[in-house]
Specification:
The protein has helices spanning 5-16, 55-63; strands at 18-21, 38-42, 69-74, 77-82, 85-91, 97-104. With 105 residues, it is of the alpha+beta class. It has one domain.
């Protein structure tokens, strides 16, 4: 049976699970929640190829929402924001982008 990489992403999220964020935490990604309840996730990517052409497209594919803009860059990738949600995307060895963490409020 052949399994495509994009079919593994939902499984990776399921295995990674979601973590509840408590207001007042110091994580930068929680800032859009501004004290309101939200949830976040982090994924360890086993494969760093086969992502999207841009970080915005990676965030759209992962979240199902549009309107992502780059808020800041770091040594591991970029943080994107849309409304009260954030996503962190990293660039793989094939120069495509994949989401590895985020928050939703």
């Amino acid at each position: 049976m052949s399994v495509r990489r994009h079919q593994l992403f939902p499984l990776a999220l399921l295995l990674a699970g979601c973590s509840a964020n408590v207001s007042g935490t110091t994580r930068q990604a929680d800032a859009p929640c501004e004290g309101r309840a939200g949830h976040g996730f982090e994924v360890s990517l086993a494969i760093n190829t086969g992502g999207a052409a841009t970080p915005q497209k990676a965030a759209e594919a992962q979240s199902g929402r549009s309107g992502w803009r780059v808020e800041r860059k770091d040594s591991n990738g970029v943080t994107l924001v849309a409304d009260r949600a954030t996503r962190h995307a990293m660039q793989g060895s094939d120069k495509t982008w994949q989401v590895d963490s985020g928050t939703d409020c």
